[in-house]
Amino acid sequence: MESNPSSPAQTGLSTYYDPVDPYAALRSTPPLAKPQQKVRFDASDSQDANGDPPLEYQWNFGDKTPVVTTNKPFVDHAYAEPGTYPASVTVVDKAGNPASASCTQRVQSQPTIGPPYAALVSQPKETLQYEPVDFDASDSQDFEGKPCVQFKWDFGDGT
């Protein structure tokens, strides 16, 4: 049989099988926004069961605007009208397995004074006794979405 360099080569097909759905997480900041104020939706805590990040994020803002699809775990959106909106994200892994998470976004013309939004991240998430842990609350915001200026820490261990 002669070889013809212009003929396509035959290749084997491989199928990727992943029976486990990814994990989806969603948060929004600020939790109380004004109309036309940019709201950041963050799904960066979402993950594939295999440890791979989801490949696709499908954002539904709950305000009848079209669903937005991205490959990034965050997106900004501004609401035109006051209201309470059920926002959601569906993450899809490379095998096509979906998982969804949702949060409620409130939008008010004249926001009332409310409690701050506390965002705490620890690293590592699990540790042994007497091992150091870093805590970060820098994403915490007041009711208007401005950074908090004072923090009071209580680790629950009497220190």
UniProtKB/TrEMBL annotation:
Residues 1-14 have a biased composition (Polar residues). Residues 46-108 form the PKD domain. Signal peptide: none annotated. SMART domains: PKD. CDD domains: PKD (cd00146). Residues 1-62 are annotated as: Disordered. InterPro entries: Ig-like_fold, PKD/Chitinase_dom, PKD_dom, PKD_dom_sf. This is PKD domain-containing protein.
